[in-house]
Amino acid sequence: MLRPLRNFAHLRSLRSRPLWKLLAADKAVFVVAVLQELLLDTEKVLPASVLYERLGQALAELRAAGEDLPQTPEAYVSDWLGHGYLTRRLPPGADEEVFELSADAATAIRFIASLAQKRALATESRLASVIHQVIKLAEATDGDPDSRVISLLAERERIDREIDRIRTHGVTALSVQRALERSREIIALSDELAADFRRVRDDFDRLNRGLRQSLIEHEGSRGEVLEALFAGVDLIAESEPGKTFAAFWRLLTDPDQSEALREALDTIVERPFARQLEAKERKFLVNLTNVLADEGSAVHDVLQSFARSLKSFVQSREFLEQRRLHTLLKQATHAALELRNSTRPTQELDYQLTLTSSRVRSSAQWLLYDPSGRVTDTHMPDADPSELDFTHLSDLLRMSEIDFRSLRQNVRAVLDRHAQASIAQVLELYPAEQGLGSVVGYIALGVKHGVRAHASELVSWQGQDAVQRSARVPTLYFVRERYDELVD
After folding, report:
1. 121: pLDDT confidence band, cut at 50, 70 and 90?
2. CB of 182 within 8 A of CB of 174?
3. What is the pTM of this model?
4. Same domain for 204 and 69?
5. Final residue before a domain boundary, out of 65, 85, 115
6. pLDDT tens profile 368-393
């Protein structure tokens, strides 16, 4: 293949990636500005509810400035997911989904941000880094012991000369300009290193899906992947990305290396030249160790989760269901291929297919009902003046509730004249003004404040309809010894 044609094919494949799509999008300025503010400069991961709220605030500000942004925050996020600018996942134990930039989108946004920064095309620190790496590579690939010894002796002589020079002439500190230049090169390189963790996690995700696909598509009872899993082999950790990350993780978690890096960063930030760094740059240097550890820990957790989920996938019924579904799809595809020569695409078939009307959507796209959107009329017209007076209201109240106060007064009046009295005797002197309600009230008072006799008595009363009624109730005596309990 000719080189221009090969380059063209490679660039055309890149054109379909989210990185190029974002840079070439009609609303690229809006998308890059918003995503950089929400998911790059401040926080890297946001829950769905927080992302929608902050995006809504950003849209309101941009619309107030005259920008034409007609969609809702949920619609924009759904669109960005479809284009690959965002990734969505549900962490274990979380109540809602979280969103973060995809690796391609983060690279595109960093590229746009770098265009706005003023930087020399060729800096001394970059050249020094290249020279140092070239020398180290030449030494590391030299297999001749004599050559290696000669190189170490020369290095020792150089160090001795440097020690003598410092003792004689003192130390010449790096100029402020060159110190700032090297600091910013360190920040840029470290920022790219932190971004690489996302690519590593994406590689693990693709590897996990590829292993699951090979498990499902294998038609035999067992395949190489299945045999390895049942043998206890961690296929993801044993892959090339897994081994590469494991080596990096060991270096990152080495106590001596981490402590040396932390002390060096603290020393740099305390130097006088560091005051000329921007606040965001100083904060990045101070938190660099924690940032690398957090990003690496997140990838490590994903790696372990994928390994466990792959093994549990094989041992669960989900694996069998997926294989069954894959088999049915293959059978349907083969049947369709066999019919393509005998059945035209436009031919009407004597078959009705009932399609589901369900629309599959993420729960994060649902909007909570806002009662303020449908406020009912709370106006209340003035009511006509009431013709009731307090006397009438008092009578109504007495008819609706048992008047225990009057009943206690009646019982006390009877006990003033007699040592004891039953309910029937009280009713003879004070007829039931509330009908059955008065009888029930006397029974309640007798149970609480009277003495129970193992007998019953006949009581009578006249209801509101002027009909005389009677009933047999337990014999309860009110006694003078419990007179004080009946006082209001």
Report:
1. very low
2. yes
3. 0.48
4. no
5. 115
6. 777 777 767 777 777 776 555 556 54
Give the H or E element holding residue 457. strand 451-462
Domain boundary among 96, 115, 134: 115
Confidence of residue 141 (pLDDT cuts 50, 70, 90): confident
Co-location of 102 and 187 in the same domain:
no
**DSSP 8-class letter at 368:** P
Task: Note whether residue 106 is domain-resident.
Answer: yes
**Gyration radius of the chain over CA positions:** 43
Which of 453, 457, 451, 488 has its CA nearest to residue 470? 457
Place of tokens 């059945």: 343
Q: Is the pLDDT of residue 343 over 70?
A: yes
Domain of 63?
A: 3-115
What is the count of structural domains for the chain?
Answer: 3
Question: Distance between CA atoms of 218 and 17, rounded to whole angstroms?
Answer: 30
Rounded Cα–Cα distance for residues 424 and 342 (Å): 103
> CA–CA separation, 323 vs 335, rounded Å?
18
Tokens of 93: 């134990």
Token pair recorded at residue 185: 């090169």
Please give the structure tokens belonging to residue 88: 């969505």
> Do the domain assignments include residue 353?
no
The C-alpha atoms of residue 414 and residue 411 are separated, in whole angstroms, by 5
| CA count, 13 A, side-chain hemisphere, 400 | 6
Res 469 pLDDT > 80: yes
For residue 173, being part of any structural domain is answered with no
- DSSP character string of 258-294: HHHHHHHHHHHHHSGGGGGS-HHHHHHHHTHHHHHHH
Distance in angstroms (rounded) separating the CA atoms of residues 475 and 486: 18
Q: Evaluate if residue 201 carries a pLDDT over 80.
A: no
Q: How far apart are the first and last CA of the chain?
A: 110
